[in-house]
Inverse folding.
């Protein structure tokens, strides 16, 4: 059954179940990892039926609705980050790497393949590591007599890193993987990975990283994406701004500093120019 030690993170472990009730956390969940240790059946995800098998791992993002339909006895572990976890309202979680975890989940939310929920892995070693870490977290977290917050914290950090690293391999065909390994995709991946370090995203730095002339890399990027390099970086940053406005209570000045804008005024002007609305109006529309 679920138990909460870290406030607004819920671990649920079920053994040999043939029926699963609708999860009460669905409407307030930000991100969830579900590992199927044993059993088989189907999951209805946003109206679409998907099979699950032993040792499969699924990830769910905000507003996903899923219902489990076991065909055989099923054992699962689920790790649920609730939306309120990232709202900075709890002194209990003050020493956790909340911002780092948010950034890892954010990579998954903004991945082109995030709508395909079953995880696939670049190597079986990564799957084995992830399974071992999920089981370790569950064992520590659900132990009512003693638990080690250090183990839980660091295991969750590595779990999120492994998922973010492998998300590009989710349910993609070989032809898609070949495209994703192209030079332009490498540049896009590099931009996403270094979006918080503006110095690495300058034309000069990108040209050096990908062994191109300064005056050619922008032309190359525009040719293959139909958008300028500068505009792509700004658009991606503004996606991350939207995510923070939706799921955190960060001040505009904090968001601006994190994403390399001069100040909140600069951020607001850029947001309004690209999105057609102010930061405050966007946040108010979410209420």
């Amino acid at each position: 059954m679920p138990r909460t030690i870290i406030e607004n993170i819920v671990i649920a472990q079920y053994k040999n179940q043939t029926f699963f009730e609708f999860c009460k956390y669905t409407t307030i969940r930000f991100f969830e990892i579900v590992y199927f240790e044993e059993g088989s059946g189907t999951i209805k995800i946003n109206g679409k039926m998907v099979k699950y098998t032993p040792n499969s791992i699924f990830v769910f993002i905000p507003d996903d609705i899923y219902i489990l339909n076991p065909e055989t006895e099923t054992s699962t572990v689920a790790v649920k980050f609730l939306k309120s976890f990232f709202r900075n309202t709890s002194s209990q979680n003050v020493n956790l790497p909340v911002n780092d975890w948010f950034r890892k989940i954010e990579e998954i939310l903004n991945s082109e393949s995030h709508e395909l929920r079953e995880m696939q892995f670049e190597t079986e070693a990564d799957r084995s590591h992830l399974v071992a870490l999920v089981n370790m977290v569950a064992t520590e977290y659900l132990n009512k007599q003693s638990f080690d917050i250090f183990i839980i914290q660091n295991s969750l950090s590595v779990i999120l890193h492994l998922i973010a690293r492998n998300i590009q391999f989710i349910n993609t065909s070989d032809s898609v993987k070949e495209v994703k390994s192209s030079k332009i995709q490498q540049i896009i991946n590099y931009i996403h990975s270094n979006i918080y370090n503006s110095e690495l995203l300058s034309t000069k730095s990108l040209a050096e990283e990908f062994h191109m002339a300064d005056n050619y890399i922008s032309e190359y990027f525009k040719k293959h994406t139909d958008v300028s390099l500068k505009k792509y970086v700004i658009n991606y940053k503004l996606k991350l701004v939207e995510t923070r406005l939706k799921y955190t209570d960060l001040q505009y000045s904090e968001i601006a500093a994190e994403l390399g804008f001069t100040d909140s005024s600069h951020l607001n002007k850029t947001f309004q120019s690209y999105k057609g609305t102010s930061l405050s109006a966007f946040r108010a529309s979410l209420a």
About this structure: The chain has two domains: 9-169, 182-285. Residues 182-285 form a domain with the Arc Repressor Mutant, subunit A fold (CATH 1.10.10.60). Confidence is low (pLDDT under 50) at residues 171-180. The beta strands are 9-17, 29-38, 41-45, 48-52, 56-60, 66-70, 74-82.
